[in-house]
Amino acid sequence: xxxxxLKKNLFTVLFLACLSLVSCSNSNIQKSENKANPQKLVVxxxxxESAATVIQNNxxxxxxxxxxxxxxxxxxxxxxxxxxxEVASKGRLDLAYFGPLSYVLAKxxxxxxxxxxxxxxxxxxxxxxxxxxxxxxxxSYEKIEGKIMAYxxxxxTSSHLIPKSMLKQKQLKAGENYEEVFxxxxxxxxxxxxxxxxQAGGLSKPIFTALIERGTIDKNKVIxxxxxxxxxxxxxxxxxxxxxxxxxxIQQAFxxxxxxxxxxxxxxxxxxxxxxxxxxxxxxxxxxLELNFEQLNK
Length: 298
Description:
Elements: H1 2-36, E1 40-45, H2 51-57, H3 59-69, E2 72-77, H4 81-89, E3 95-97, H5 100-107, E4 112-119, E5 125-126, E6 128-133, E7 148-151, H6 157-169, E8 179-182, H7 186-194, E9 200-204, H8 205-214, E10 222-227, E11 231-232, E12 235-239, H9 244-255, H10 260-263, E13 270-272, H11 280-288, H12 293-296
Parallel strand pairs: 1-2, 1-3, 7-8, 7-9
Antiparallel strand pairs: 3-12, 4-12, 4-13, 5-11, 6-9, 6-10
């Protein structure tokens, strides 16, 4: 009788142990499935303006993606480009909207891939500007010599990489021929130049145009010194380890987007296909400027 009881108890223990192993196995599989196909997608947007403004401007995108993908959407805006790159490197962003340079930097340490870029007037390129303070008469490259040049974020393409390269082509180097300051965002660059805190600055042409149209900047207080050549537009990226069907659905959602109200914050008419190779020109420009990508990534 005692032997029978012991056998039953042993069987019970073994059964519960197996059940526990199966449960753990299923739990691990579930976690893996959730990572590839999560119910909530974290969607990061560039901190070109205040976080509250960026999120409010993109509420339409949030609702659109929720309906299209049947997922919960969480909009995320970091304090700066470097923070966004760091969060992406930890795999915490499912989708992210980068500038060309910040994408190149993020790609070196993150498992991400670009899938769409802005299209405006039939083009998937854009330009940067070098602007000057009108009152100080900064209307040429030569007059930037010995002055303060404002840039946005160090990891920004159009408010750092491109305008700095434009100055270098004119033999103007930061720290040698002018003093550089980083003020965080494109709008801050325009404001700094308009109020004379910086005599010159570099920023995105589409953003500058929008600031003038909104009346944020008085067009009589700034002078456009030069426009850059065209560069590839800002890319949308996704985690490469997302479920393949979900990745296709995400890309289609962006390529099929036609709502002008949703596209307005991006200053775009639509989104178009893009590949990693399209941003080799940005990588090459960084090499020409001898930028320390590892330092910018910190």
